[in-house]
From TrEMBL:
<dbReference type="GO" id="GO:0005829">
    <property type="term" value="C:cytosol"/>
</dbReference>
<feature type="domain" description="Glycerol-3-phosphate dehydrogenase NAD-dependent N-terminal">
    <location>
        <begin position="97"/>
        <end position="257"/>
    </location>
</feature>
<dbReference type="Pfam" id="PF07479">
    <property type="entry name" value="NAD_Gly3P_dh_C"/>
</dbReference>
<comment type="similarity">
    <text>Belongs to the NAD-dependent glycerol-3-phosphate dehydrogenase family.</text>
</comment>
<keyword id="KW-0443">Lipid metabolism</keyword>
<keyword id="KW-1208">Phospholipid metabolism</keyword>
<dbReference type="InterPro" id="IPR008927">
    <property type="entry name" value="6-PGluconate_DH-like_C_sf"/>
</dbReference>
<comment type="pathway">
    <text>Lipid metabolism.</text>
</comment>
<dbReference type="GO" id="GO:0005975">
    <property type="term" value="P:carbohydrate metabolic process"/>
</dbReference>
<keyword id="KW-0594">Phospholipid biosynthesis</keyword>
<dbReference type="GO" id="GO:0008654">
    <property type="term" value="P:phospholipid biosynthetic process"/>
</dbReference>
<dbReference type="InterPro" id="IPR013328">
    <property type="entry name" value="6PGD_dom2"/>
</dbReference>
<dbReference type="GO" id="GO:0009507">
    <property type="term" value="C:chloroplast"/>
</dbReference>
<dbReference type="GO" id="GO:0006072">
    <property type="term" value="P:glycerol-3-phosphate metabolic process"/>
</dbReference>
<feature type="domain" description="Glycerol-3-phosphate dehydrogenase NAD-dependent C-terminal">
    <location>
        <begin position="276"/>
        <end position="416"/>
    </location>
</feature>
<dbReference type="InterPro" id="IPR036291">
    <property type="entry name" value="NAD(P)-bd_dom_sf"/>
</dbReference>
<dbReference type="GO" id="GO:0051287">
    <property type="term" value="F:NAD binding"/>
</dbReference>
Length: 428
C-alpha cells in the first residue's frame, strides 16, 4: 500500500529545481581549476565528467519543465484511475430502496440522480401534491418543477409515508427547514431507528435556531438517528442536466459519510467527505442570507466594487460565527463554504439572490414571495442571524442589515448608507 502514500504529482526519477540557473553556476564552479602553489607542477586536467542530469534539464529550459509537468499529470491520471478501480461498490450493490422526502426541485434532482446509479434501485418520492404524484407515476415528469426533464423509470411517487419509508436503505430529506419539524413528527412512527437521513435542506429554524442535525433527531425522538449533511455548490437544474458538480457529505460517523459518498459519486458528481457537520450546516444556512445581500447590491446597481466588498465582508462574518460555534476554518473555504457562497451570490439561478435583486429594485417582500413557487430559505434564516450574533457575541453588520431590511426596519438604500458609514477598522 505504499503507492498510496506516494504523491502522484511528483516524478521521482527526474530532479526538479525551481532555480536552474543557480544550479548551472554551482556546477561551473565545481569544474573550475585550482591554482597550483608556486614552483609546483601543474596537474594534468582531469577528464571532463558528464554533466549531471539536473544540469541538462536547466539547459533545456521551459520545454523540459513542460515535459515534467506533463509526466506528472499523466501519473496523476493513472493514480486516479487505479484508485477508482479499487473503490468499493458494495454500498450500491446492497442498496435496494431509497426514499426522498419532498417533491421540490432539489429533491426531484436527487431522486433522478440516485436512480441512475442502479437500474434495479427503487426510488420513492414522498410528495404532498396529488397532481405531482400522478405526473411522476404516469408521465415520468415533475409537472411543477421539471416539466421538460423526464425522470428515470425507477422513480415513483407516493403520498403515503408508510409505503414510502418501508424497507428504505437511505432517506434523502428535502423538506424546507421551517416545515421540517412538523413534517417529521407526522411520519416519525414509520421511520426505522437505523435509517440514515441525508439532509438536503439548508437553513436555521427561526424560533429555536436549530440546524437540521438537531431538528431531525428531536422530531423523530431518536437522538441516535444516523445523520449526514449534504451541501456544496449545486443547482438542481444542472444536476438534472448531468453537468459536472462537486459536493460534500458531512457526518460525525466516518463510515456513514463514506457510504453516502459511494452511493452518490459518479462520473458527473464528485463527493468529498467531512466530519465538520457544524461548519457545513452553518455555511450552508448563512450563505443564503448573504446571497440576498448580494442581490440587493445588484438591484441597486451599485457596481462590481461594492459587490466584491460586501461579499468579502459577509464571508468574514460567516467565518467569525461558524468558528465560534465550533466549525473548522478550512470547511469555510471549501465546497460548502466559499464554493456555495460564490454560486449563490453571483449566479442568476439562485432564488435568494433573486429575492435580493427584486428588493433592491423596489419591490415589496410579500409580493416577491407570493410570486415564487419555491422557498427562499435566506428570508427566514435572516431572522435567526441577529439572535445568533447576540448569543455568540459576534458582530455581523452585513447579515444583520439583511434581517432588518426583511423586517422593514431599513430600506435597501439606507442599509447601504449605514454600512458605508461604519467605523473604519483593521482587517482581521
Amino acid at each position: 500500500m505504499t503507492w498510496l502514500l506516494e504523491p502522484p504529482f511528483v516524478n521521482s526519477s527526474i530532479p526538479f529545481h525551481s532555480h536552474p540557473h543557480n544550479l548551472y553556476i554551482r556546477n561551473n564552479s565545481f569544474f573550475k581549476p585550482i591554482s597550483a602553489a608556486p614552483g609546483a607542477v601543474e596537474p594534468l586536467s582531469p577528464e571532463p565528467e558528464p554533466e549531471p542530469e539536473s544540469l541538462a534539464l536547466s539547459l533545456d529550459g521551459p520545454r523540459e519543465r513542460r515535459r515534467v509537468v506533463r509526466l506528472a499529470w499523466e501519473k496523476l491520471v493513472r493514480w486516479s484511475r487505479s484508485l477508482r478501480s479499487k473503490a468499493k461498490t458494495d454500498v450500491i450493490e446492497r442498496t435496494n430502496k431509497i426514499v426522498v422526502l419532498g417533491g421540490g426541485s432539489f429533491g426531484t434532482a436527487m431522486a433522478a440522480h440516485v436512480a441512475t446509479r442502479k437500474s434495479q434501485l427503487e426510488v420513492n418520492m414522498l410528495v404532498r401534491d396529488p397532481q405531482v404524484c400522478r405526473s411522476i407515476n404516469e408521465e415520468h415528469y415533475n409537472c411543477k418543477y421539471f416539466p421538460q426533464h423526464k425522470l428515470p423509470e425507477n422513480v415513483i411517487a407516493t403520498t403515503d409515508a408508510k409505503a414510502a419509508l418501508l424497507g428504505a436503505d437511505f432517506c434523502f430529506h428535502a423538506v424546507p427547514v421551517q416545515f421540517s419539524s412538523s413534517f417529521l413528527e407526522e411520519i416519525a412512527n414509520h421511520v426505522d431507528p437505523g435509517l440514515p437521513f441525508i439532509s438536503l435542506s439548508k437553513g436555521l429554524e427561526l424560533n429555536t435556531l436549530r440546524t437540521m442535525s438537531q431538528i431531525i433527531p428531536k422530531a423523530l425522538k431518536n437522538p441516535r438517528q444516523p445523520y449526514v449533511a449534504l451541501s456544496g455548490p449545486s443547482f438542481a437544474l444542472e444536476l438534472m442536466n448531468e453537468l459536472p458538480t462537486a459536493m460534500v457529505v458531512a457526518s460525525k460517523d466516518k463510515k456513514m459519510a463514506n457510504s453516502v459518498q459511494q452511493l452518490m459519486a459518479c462520473r458527473n458528481l464528485r463527493i468529498n467527505t467531512s466530519s465538520d457537520v457544524t461548519g457545513v450546516e452553518i455555511a450552508g444556512a448563512l450563505k443564503n442570507v448573504l446571497a440576498i445581500a448580494a442581490g440587493i447590491v445588484e438591484g441597486l446597481n451599485l457596481g462590481n466594487n461594492s459587490m466584491a466588498a460586501l461579499v468579502s465582508q459577509g464571508c468574514s462574518e460567516i467565518r467569525w460565527l461558524a468558528t465560534k460555534m465550533g466549525a473548522k476554518s478550512t470547511t469555510l473555504t471549501g465546497l460548502s463554504g466559499t464554493g456555495d457562497i460564490m454560486l449563490t451570490c453571483f449566479v442568476s439561478l439562485s432564488r435568494n439572490r433573486t429575492v435580493g435583486v427584486r428588493l433592491g429594485s423596489g419591490e415589496k417582500l410579500d409580493d416577491i414571495l407570493s410570486s415564487m413557487n419555491q422557498v427562499a430559505e435566506g428570508v427566514t434564516t435572516a431572522g435567526a442571524v441577529i439572535a445568533l450574533a447576540q448569543k455568540y457575541k459576534v458582530k455581523m453588520p452585513v447579515l444583520t442589515a439583511v434581517a432588518r431590511i426583511i423586517d422593514n426596519e431599513l430600506t435597501p438604500t439606507k442599509a447601504v448608507f449605514e454600512l458605508m458609514n461604519l467605523p473604519q477598522v483593521e482587517e482581521v
